[in-house]
Structure formats: structure tokens, C-alpha cells
Sequence to fold (423 residues):
Amino acid sequence: MQYSIPRGTYDILPEDSPKWHRVIAEFRKLVEAYGYAEIVTPIFEQAALFERSSGESSDVVKKEMYRFTDRKGREFALRPEGTAPVARSYIENRMDIGSSYTKLYYLGPMFRYDRPQAGRYRQFYQYGVEFIGSNNPYYDAEIIAILWNYLTGLGLKKLHLELNSVGCSVCAKEYDKALRDYFQPYLNQLCPDCQERFERKPRRILDCKVKECGDIAKKAPIQLDYLDEPCREHFSEVQHYLDLMKIPFIINPRIVRGLDYYTNTAFEVIYEGIGAQNALAGGGRYNGLLNQIGGKNIPAVGFAGGFERLFLSLNEEKITLPGPPFPEVFIITIGREAQELIIPYLNIIRVKGIYAEYEPDRASLKAQLKAANNSKAYYALLIGEEEIKQKSALLKNLESGEQKLYSLEPISDLIKTIQNKEL
Fold:
């Protein structure tokens, strides 16, 4: 029987791995410059964690979570998003002790039972940042700046940042009432999911992908008209800091985000040109989440983005990322004795971090030279009868043809030449 990959997943093949390493390295470098440290959480958590954080009526919980029951009857779920596990770890490990705030970032796979399409998978890879410990609007702007600088730093240009405020628990009540008043006459025209959302979370109707619901929602009231004074001032300050950072943005009052824990600032970075799934990343403030899952009432803000859509965008703009590396040196041996001589040194060369290739199945000098050229190696290291007698090796630059004999005892001079490409 031949097995195939599960629907909605994909393999990261060797030719693509260097591209992943590059975008991840750029992300790590940037967030660590802002003072964020990496946190790694399990890929599964108690299902109740996501029910409490994302909302029992959310699509993530109702339709998309991969749930399972262990042998003791406990309910777990593969993590559908990264913020709730980070918040759980923050509380459980008492990260609030000894510091007024905590800066964290994460990388890893998430899981949602969703309809696969371009940029949307059932196992997908996220990068994310969480700032915990302050309600200062500066940190909303800092979080957004990290995301914007990361994406533009990779070379993406067809981006725009959309910004909104979803208010707080106080002003949200008045807004929810206004939404129910608006949608009431259209209730029978809404899809079954939105009819259920009408009572529990009417703002979710604004994010419905059903065309009829979207058309009805176009003239619905907007949250910005219902912000109380503290929320209005907070939103104004976020915009002010973004202006100071020279980060362009547009106000989109329709951003509601798909999870229940968002308060105040909500934002998305949109890329034009990759189809319907064009939100590269998004996030916002979630001041009530930690208290909601058993912690103190500590404010927080963060974002998450998907690597899959990021790669689609990089390909769209034809931004070149590294391919598989070429060998720095290709070992060529003539005869068994030459092989016995070089193998201990080959091990030393590789331990020094030099990419050295060797193919002992190829016996003839001609076949080995051809393999060295095909590998696009920078050097060839040849060991024949004369080299065996002198306990040496001939290093040849495969581009220029220049060559030089090096003693293998000590091997340090040879290693230095290969590392510095001095020949």
C-alpha cells in the first residue's frame, strides 16, 4: 500500500528548507533586537483552554479544533493558535514575578480543521509575538512596528496595514445592542451560523464569509462610533505612535478578528495579489484574557502570522530566498589507501562546520571530478599516490583552476584556507 500525505498538510522538502531557515532567522533577529525571548509550548493543550479563550461559539472552537480524548477520558486539543498557550504558560510559571512586563515570541505548527486552499492549511506554521504587562498604547504600536518591519524588511512592498479598535467590555455592550437592533429585521436572511451569533456574539456576523451575510453587514453600525472616552483616547495614542514611527496605516472599522479575547486595538497586514486569503498577519490587544483563564487581570497585546501566506507573497514579488547550499569542498580519492588516509580528516573538516561532500561509490578520477563540478563545490580536495606518500592533499579551486598542496599534519592551515576561501 502506498501512503499519501493527509489533506491540508504539506512536506517541507530539502530544496525549500533554506528558505524557511532564512525567514525564521530574520524574524528571530528582529524580535530579539526588541528584547523578546522565545517560548516553546506543547502542540496540544486542554481543550477547555481554547474554549475559555477563543469563545465556545467561535468557529475555531465549534468547527476547527482537532480534539481528542486520552486514555483517562481527558479532553485535549491540538493548538489552533498560539496566544492562549503562551498566556497559560505565563500564568502557570509565574512570569509576572520580578518584572513589570514580559516580552515573548513563538514559532511552530498550529492545527485547524479548515477547508484547504491557497494559503490555508490544516497544519500551518505561525510566528507570533506577545507583550504582557502594560496597557500603554506605545506597546500596541511597538508590536505593530515589529510586524511591519519584519515584512517590509524581507522586501515585500504590496502591503497595507489596517487598524481598528474593538473597544472594551464596557463600550462593547452598547455596540452589541446596536448590532442586534440593526440585524433584527434581517434575521431570517442570515445564515444559520449568524442566526446563532446574533444572540451570543453579534459582531461575529461582521466577519461572516457568506455573501448574503456580508452584503447585509455592509451598512451595520461600526464600533468606532461606540467607543467610550478611554478607548477613544487609547486608539488615538496608538495612531500617534505609529505616525512617529512612520508606519503607514488605514482605518478599517470592519476588523473584528475571529477570537473572543480581543479588546481595543485590532489590526491586520494585508497583501494584495495572493487571492482571498490575503491577511499575512494580524493581532491586537487582549486585556481580559489572562484573567479569563485563571490569572490576574494583566493587560497584553500581540500578533501572529502564517509562514505559508508569507511565502506566497514573497513568490508573488519574485523575492529570491536562499536555495540548498553548495559544498565548500568535494573530496576525491584515488584508491583504497587514499580513502583510508582522508576519512579521519574528513570528519575533522565537517566538525569545523565546513560542508564537505564525499562519494566513495565513484571509483575513477574522471567520475569524481565530474561529480565535484556537478555539485558546484568551491574546492576539490584530491588525494592520490603522491599525496599518500607525503601525507598531504591537493586543494583545487574548481572555478579558477588554481591549486596548492597542503600537509594533513597539522590540518589547520587547510581548514583555514577552505573557511576563508583564500586560494
Q: What stands out?
A: The chain has a mean pLDDT of 92. The two ends are 53 Å apart (CA to CA). The CA atoms of residues 83 and 158 lie 27 Å apart. The longest strand covers residues 102-111.
